[in-house]
C-alpha cells in the first residue's frame, strides 16, 4: 500500500527538509474537521456501537450542535448515504485494505466508509473527500492510522463506482448477487423482493433502486381537522397522488421539528402507503349489521390509530387500540387524546376484550423490509432468521382477530414488508382456519395504478412512491 503526500494543512509541517515541530503535550487540540462530516461520523459510530437509528440520532445531534443550512444538508446526505451503501462500500474497501476489513477498528472503518461514500457516490472532489476523512481518522486514532486511511482512500479513488462494480461483479455469476451489489442491498433481501414481484430482472432492479433513494417526507392531514389542500398550502408541500389525506414535502423541506402543522397537531408524519392501508381498513365492505366497534390490534405508536380514530369520529364509531408495550401505548394515547379511542396495554393474542368487533386492523410487527428507504442502516442489520419468529407472532395475532370479529365483520391484515412469508404466507392459512373469505382489496385503493391481479394489494416505492406496504382484506363468514 502506498501513501501519497498532500499539501500541508491546518498547521501540519511540510516534508521539505525543515525540522518537524516538537510534538505538543497537554490537552488535545479541538477538532479541525468540518462540522458536517464530524456529525456524520458521530452518527455512523452510534449506529455501529450502540445499534442506534440514524434517522433518530442525526436530527437531535444537528440541533444540539446548531448545525443548519448547507452543513445540515451535507451531514444528512453523508450519514444516510453511507449507512445505506455500507455493503457496497465494504466490498470496495475490502479490495483496498491489505487485511480483513473486520479487523480494522470500528471508528476507523466507519470513517473509511464515509470517505469511500464521498469518493464513489458524491461530486465532492477527491482531495476534499480524502483529506477530510484523514482528518477525522487523525482525531479518532492518531497520525499513524491517518496515514493508513490516506493510503486506503487513495486506492478507492483510483476507480469510480461503475468501475468498482464491474470489478466486483466479475467475481460472481449469480445475477441476484449482482443486482444486490449494484443497488446496495443484501442478497437475501433482493431475493425476497424478487419473489414478491415475480421478477428478477428490470422490475426488481427498479424496485431496489427506488428503495435505495432518499424518500420524501409524507404528512397525514388529520381527517376532519384539515384538508390535504390546506395542509399543502401551509407546509409548501404537494397534495399526495393517492391518499385523500396525504401531503408530500419537498426534499430537504425544512426542519420537521419546527413545523407548526405538527406542533399544532393538525398533521402527523406518515408514509402515504400507511395512510392508504388504514383508509382501506375503514372502508372494506361489511356484511349486514352495524359498523360501530373498531379494533386496532397492534396500535403503537399510533400512526394508523389516528386515521382510524379520525374517521371513526366522523362516522360515529369508536376504536379500541391494543398495544403490548407500555411506552408505545403512551404514544398512542398522546396522538389520539381528542379522538374516540380507548387504549389498552395488552397482548393482542389475548387482549381480554369482548368479541363482536365490526372492523379489526392487524398492523402486525414485521421485518420492516418495506420501509428500508426510511431507515438507512436497517438493511444491513436485519437477518433472514428474523422472519421465522415474526411469522409465528403474525399468525397468532391474526388468529386472535378472527376470534374477536363478528360474522360479516372485516379483518384487515397489514405489514410493511413484501416478504411472502409475512404476507400471503400468513393470510391464506390464517383466513382458512379463522373461517374468513379473502376479499379483493384493490377496489379499496381507488385510482392507485399497477395493483396486479389481486386479491391482495402490495404497494411499492418504484410503482407508487410509497413504502412497500402489504394489505389483505378478509371477512368472517
Ligand atoms: C407495525 S407496528 C404498528 C404500527 C402502528 N399501527 C402505526 O401505524 O403506528 C407493530 C406494533 O405491534 C406491537 N406488538 C408487538 N407484539 C404485540 C402483541 N403481541 N400484541 C399487541 N401489540 C404487539 C409492537 O410493539 C408495535 O408497536
TrEMBL record:
<dbReference type="GO" id="GO:0008173">
    <property type="term" value="F:RNA methyltransferase activity"/>
</dbReference>
<feature type="binding site">
    <location>
        <position position="347"/>
    </location>
    <ligand>
        <name>S-adenosyl-L-methionine</name>
    </ligand>
</feature>
<feature type="binding site">
    <location>
        <position position="363"/>
    </location>
    <ligand>
        <name>S-adenosyl-L-methionine</name>
    </ligand>
</feature>
<protein>
    <submittedName>
        <fullName>tRNA/rRNA cytosine-C5-methylase</fullName>
    </submittedName>
</protein>
<feature type="binding site">
    <location>
        <position position="323"/>
    </location>
    <ligand>
        <name>S-adenosyl-L-methionine</name>
    </ligand>
</feature>
<dbReference type="InterPro" id="IPR029063">
    <property type="entry name" value="SAM-dependent_MTases_sf"/>
</dbReference>
<dbReference type="GO" id="GO:0003723">
    <property type="term" value="F:RNA binding"/>
</dbReference>
<dbReference type="GO" id="GO:0006355">
    <property type="term" value="P:regulation of DNA-templated transcription"/>
</dbReference>
<dbReference type="InterPro" id="IPR023267">
    <property type="entry name" value="RCMT"/>
</dbReference>
<feature type="binding site">
    <location>
        <begin position="298"/>
        <end position="304"/>
    </location>
    <ligand>
        <name>S-adenosyl-L-methionine</name>
    </ligand>
</feature>
<keyword id="KW-0489">Methyltransferase</keyword>
<comment type="similarity">
    <text>Belongs to the class I-like SAM-binding methyltransferase superfamily. RsmB/NOP family.</text>
</comment>
<comment type="function">
    <text>May act as RNA methyltransferase.</text>
</comment>
<dbReference type="GO" id="GO:0001510">
    <property type="term" value="P:RNA methylation"/>
</dbReference>
<dbReference type="Pfam" id="PF01029">
    <property type="entry name" value="NusB"/>
</dbReference>
<dbReference type="InterPro" id="IPR049560">
    <property type="entry name" value="MeTrfase_RsmB-F_NOP2_cat"/>
</dbReference>
<keyword id="KW-0694">RNA-binding</keyword>
<dbReference type="Pfam" id="PF01189">
    <property type="entry name" value="Methyltr_RsmB-F"/>
</dbReference>
<keyword id="KW-0949">S-adenosyl-L-methionine</keyword>
<feature type="domain" description="SAM-dependent MTase RsmB/NOP-type">
    <location>
        <begin position="193"/>
        <end position="477"/>
    </location>
</feature>
<feature type="active site" description="Nucleophile">
    <location>
        <position position="416"/>
    </location>
</feature>
<keyword id="KW-0808">Transferase</keyword>
<dbReference type="InterPro" id="IPR006027">
    <property type="entry name" value="NusB_RsmB_TIM44"/>
</dbReference>
<dbReference type="InterPro" id="IPR001678">
    <property type="entry name" value="MeTrfase_RsmB-F_NOP2_dom"/>
</dbReference>
<dbReference type="InterPro" id="IPR035926">
    <property type="entry name" value="NusB-like_sf"/>
</dbReference>
<feature type="region of interest" description="Disordered">
    <location>
        <begin position="1"/>
        <end position="36"/>
    </location>
</feature>
Amino acid at each position: 500500500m502506498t501513501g501519497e503526500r498532500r499539501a500541508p494543512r491546518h498547521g501540519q509541517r511540510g516534508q521539505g527538509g525543515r525540522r518537524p515541530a516538537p510534538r505538543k503535550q497537554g490537552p488535545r487540540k479541538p477538532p479541525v474537521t468540518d462540522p458536517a462530516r464530524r456529525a456524520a461520523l458521530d452518527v455512523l459510530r452510534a449506529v455501529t456501537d450502540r445499534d442506534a437509528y440514524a434517522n433518530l440520532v442525526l436530527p437531535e445531534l444537528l440541533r444540539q450542535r446548531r448545525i443548519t443550512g448547507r452543513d445540515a444538508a451535507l451531514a444528512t446526505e453523508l450519514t444516510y448515504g453511507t449507512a445505506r451503501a455500507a455493503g457496497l462500500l465494504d466490498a470496495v474497501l475490502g479490495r483496498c485494505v491489505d487485511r480483513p476489513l473486520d479487523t480494522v477498528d470500528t471508528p476507523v472503518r466507519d470513517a473509511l466508509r464515509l470517505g469511500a461514500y464521498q469518493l464513489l457516490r458524491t461530486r465532492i472532489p477527491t482531495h476534499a473527500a480524502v483529506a477530510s476523512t484523514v482528518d477525522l481518522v487523525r482525531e479518532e486514532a492518531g497520525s499513524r492510522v491517518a496515514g493508513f486511511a490516506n493510503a486506503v482512500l487513495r486506492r478507492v479513488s483510483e476507480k469510480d463506482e461503475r468501475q468498482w462494480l464491474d470489478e466486483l461483479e466479475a467475481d460472481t455469476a449469480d445475477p441476484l448477487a449482482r443486482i444486490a451489489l449494484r443497488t446496495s442491498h443484501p442478497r437475501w433481501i433482493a431475493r425476497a423482493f424478487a419473489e414478491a414481484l415475480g421478477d428478477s430482472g428490470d422490475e426488481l432492479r427498479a424496485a431496489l433502486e427506488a428503495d435505495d433513494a432518499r424518500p420524501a417526507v409524507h404528512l397525514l392531514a388529520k381527517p376532519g381537522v384539515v384538508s390535504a389542500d390546506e395542509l399543502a398550502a401551509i407546509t409548501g408541500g404537494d397534495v399526495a397522488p393517492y391518499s385523500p389525506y396525504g401531503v408530500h414535502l419537498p426534499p430537504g423541506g425544512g426542519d420537521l421539528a419546527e413545523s407548526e402543522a405538527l406542533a399544532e397537531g393538525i398533521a402527523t408524519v406518515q408514509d402515504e402507503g400507511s395512510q392508504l392501508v388504514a383508509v382501506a381498513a375503514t372502508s372494506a365492505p361489511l356484511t349486514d349489521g352495524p359498523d360501530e366497534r373498531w379494533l386496532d390490534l397492534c396500535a403503537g405508536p399510533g400512526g394508523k390509530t389516528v386515521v382510524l380514530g379520525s374517521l371513526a369520529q366522523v362516522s360515529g364509531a369508536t376504536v379500541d387500540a391494543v398495544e403490548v408495550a407500555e411506552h408505545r401505548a403512551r404514544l398512542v394515547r398522546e396522538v389520539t387524546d381528542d379522538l374516540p379511542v380507548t387504549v389498552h396495554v395488552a397482548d393482542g393474542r389475548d387482549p381480554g376484550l369482548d368479541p363482536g368487533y365490526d372492523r379489526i386492523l392487524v398492523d402486525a410487527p414485521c421485518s420492516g423490509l418495506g420501509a428500508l428507504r426510511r431507515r438507512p442502516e436497517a438493511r444491513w442489520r436485519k437477518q433472514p432468521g428474523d422472519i421465522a419468529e415474526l411469522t409465528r407472532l403474525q399468525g397468532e395475532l391474526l388468529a386472535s382477530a378472527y376470534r374477536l370479529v363478528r360474522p360479516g365483520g372485516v379483518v384487515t391484515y397489514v405489514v410493511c414488508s413484501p416478504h411472502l412469508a409475512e404476507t400471503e404466507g400468513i393470510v391464506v392459512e390464517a383466513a382458512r382456519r379463522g373461517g374468513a373469505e379473502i376479499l379483493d382489496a384493490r377496489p379499496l385503493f381507488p385510482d392507485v395504478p399497477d395493483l396486479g391481479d389481486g386479491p391482495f394489494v402490495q404497494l411499492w416505492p418504484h410503482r407508487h412512491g410509497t413504502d412497500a406496504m402489504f394489505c389483505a382484506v378478509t371477512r368472517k363468514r
